[in-house]
């Protein structure tokens, strides 16, 4: 196979843009020289060109940040993206747990809204449908997404009367939920142990995109409780974490769930 040849100037330009994108603060020319190790003359030429193309902008204090042209690319990418199509494409690529029910949902206030479902061949006694709403605190995808929220946003998301329970299981207050969210962060996946339906265990993971630190969606798999022994739970949780990572990559995220 013929080896790919990269254009050095393009690689250097992308390196500059990546460094500015990764920095929480604008960077001076001196900062860029130190961080990138490029010759000053080469970096100066790159910055001048990037400025002319509006890919970076220069602030009044002389430091640099990303420019408006980059936002145009980001908006074009997002406008072409269909989250549900990416979900099914990622799942088809992986081909794990093919007989189980898989769902994709987003947060909407205190609920999760299911936007894509692939109901499996194993009967659960419960059918997920696109458009279905359930209280986020009881669902695997809801817990996965809530676990990624900064503390102020999480407090705001939970600032409402506790929803009526769907079963005799699941968290009964914020304190119990916080314990579960801590487990999600430790394990990398969430667990709904019969909180949505008796006899059904669900395992979820958070999906990220390139623009948000908090999750933009969640994926989950549902198993019959009688089949959810310790080994099966671990397999299901890890499978969802891998699926979430694959979908996050398709959405342009550098962070993994």
UniProtKB/TrEMBL annotation:
Please list the residue ranges annotated as the HTH iclR-type domain. 7-68
Question: What PROSITE patterns does the entry give?
Answer: HTH_ICLR, ICLR_ED
The record's annotation in InterPro entries points to: GAF-like_dom_sf, HTH_MetabolicPath_Reg, Tscrpt_reg_IclR_C, Tscrpt_reg_IclR_N, WH-like_DNA-bd_sf, WH_DNA-bd_sf
Source species, domain of life: Bacteria
- Does this UniProt record's set of keywords contain Transcription? yes
Q: Which UniProt keywords apply?
A: DNA-binding, Transcription, Transcription regulation
IclR-ED domain ranges (all copies): 69-253
Checking PANTHER family in the record gives: HELIX-TURN-HELIX TRANSCRIPTIONAL REGULATOR, ICLR FAMILY, HTH-TYPE TRANSCRIPTIONAL REPRESSOR ALLR
Q: What is this protein called?
A: IclR family transcriptional regulator
Q: Which organism is it from?
A: Alcaligenes ammonioxydans
**Organism ancestry:** Bacteria, Pseudomonadati, Pseudomonadota, Betaproteobacteria, Burkholderiales
């Amino acid at each position: 196979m013929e080896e790919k040849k990269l254009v050095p100037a393009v690689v250097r330009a992308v390196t500059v843009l990546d460094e500015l994108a990764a920095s929480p603060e604008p960077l001076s020319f001196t900062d860029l020289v130190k961080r990138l190790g490029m010759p000053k003359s080469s970096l100066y030429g790159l910055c001048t060109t990037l400025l002319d193309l509006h890919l970076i902008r220069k602030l009044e204090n002389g430091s640099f940040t990303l420019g408006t042209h980059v936002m145009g690319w980001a908006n074009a990418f997002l406008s072409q993206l269909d989250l549900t199509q990416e979900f099914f494409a990622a799942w088809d690529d992986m081909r794990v747990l093919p007989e189980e029910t898989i769902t994709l949902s987003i947060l909407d206030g205190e609920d999760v809204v299911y936007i894509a479902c692939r109901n499996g061949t194993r009967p659960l006694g419960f059918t997920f449908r696109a458009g279905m709403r359930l209280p986020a605190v009881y669902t695997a995808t809801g817990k996965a997404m809530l676990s990624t929220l900064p503390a102020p946003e999480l407090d705001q998301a939970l600032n409402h009367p506790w929803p009526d329970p769907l079963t005799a299981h699941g968290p009964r207050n914020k304190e119990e939920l916080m314990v579960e969210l801590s487990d999600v962060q430790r394990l990398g996946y969430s667990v709904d142990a019969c909180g949505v339906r008796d006899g059904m265990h669900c395992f979820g993971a958070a999906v990220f995109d390139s623009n948000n630190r908090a999750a933009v969606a969640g994926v989950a798999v549902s198993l019959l409780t009688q089949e959810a022994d310790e080994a099966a739970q671990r397999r299901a949780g890890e499978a969802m974490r891998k699926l979430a990572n694959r979908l996050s990559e398709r959405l342009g995220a550098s962070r993994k769930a």
